[in-house]
Each structure stands twice: as structure tokens, then as C-alpha cells.
Amino acid sequence: MKKITANFVMGVVLLALLCAGCGVAGTIPQIGDKAPDFTLKDINGEAISLSQFQGKTVILVFASINCKGCEDQMPHLVAIAQQEKENLVILEVYQFNGANLVREYVSRKGYVHFPALPDPKGEVATQYGAIRNPPTNFVIDKSGIIRYQKIGPFKSPEEISFIIRSL
After folding, report:
1. Is the pLDDT of residue 17 over 80?
2. Residue 139: partners with Cβ closer than 8 Å, 6 or more residues away
3. Is residue 25 pLDDT above 60, yes or no?
4. Are 62 and 54 in contact (CB under 8 A)?
5. Which pTM value belongs to this model?
6. CA 44 to CA 141: how far, in whole Å?
7. pLDDT tens-digit series, residues 87-104
8. Using an 8 Å Cβ cutoff, are 110 and 116 in contact?
9. Which of 113, 118, 147, 152 could share a disulfide with 99, CB 3.0–4.6 Å?
10. Phi–psi pair at 49, nearest 5 degrees
11. Is the peptide bond preceding residue 118 cis, with omega within 30 degrees of 0?
12. Do 73 and 158 touch, CB atoms closer than 8 A?
């Protein structure tokens, strides 16, 4: 009986350790929270951190390859990036996709307008609670505060522009 109890306790402790930081309720950032910093390597192997864009508005997109909604919003993101130029940074985090797969996908689709950041284990997506419904979009202000979140694709560049202007 003691062996079963000890194994049970060890299992609970192991599960708790595995789940630490897994996006348990209360740890997922909300609108008004400081956006958690992260560093991922882009498809060329260059380390990109969210914090390096402090002082600029950032649209953080959690996407997946072959995601229809992700592909539908891409022209709107490209248009707003061209309109806003130096005032806006767009980061595309490809959750649960490795570098080779993402590199091939963005090259084939021509999605080379902003950094494509593979998140092969979904760690950053999990940190943001964005693992279920790609695309999930976060708009982060110049101070690094999450000001807007949208699950699902943006419908137009005007929609994005309105959100940015209201920050």
C-alpha cells in the first residue's frame, strides 16, 4: 500500500513539474499585461526577440502552415506593413512547425515580408495561450503592453489600421 501511495505522489509531483508554465489559467497574458518576451530563431537561424522591438508597435501572429485563415489574412498584414513601414513590426510564429517545413512553406507561398519564426514545440504559442485557433493575433504597443487580441484572421488592412490607431 505504501509503495502505491509513494508512486501516486511521485506521479502527481512529476505531472505538476511538467505542467509548470504550460499556460495554466492565470499565467496566460491578457490585454493590459506586459507581453512576455521570447527568443526564437527565424528560418535563416537568426535569433529574434520580442524585446528587440521595444518602442515599436508589434503584431504578433501565431500561425500554422496550411492554415486557411492564416493565408487569408496575409495580404492584409503585408498591406499594413507597407503602409506603416518603420512604425510597425509583424512577427509570424509558426506553432508546432520546424524550421525546414516553415522555410519551404513561406518560400513556396511568397510569405517573405516579415520574420517567419518556427516554434516547433509550441512553447511560445503555449505561453501566450494561442495553441488552438490559428491565427491568433496580438497587438503590442510601443511600451510592450498587449492592447488587442484577435482569434481568427483580420478581414482587411483597414481593420488592422483602426486597431493600431486606437492604441
Report:
1. no
2. 57, 58, 59, 60, 146, 147, 148, 149, 163, 164, 167
3. no
4. no
5. 0.83
6. 27
7. 999 999 999 999 999 999
8. no
9. 118
10. -115, 145
11. no
12. no
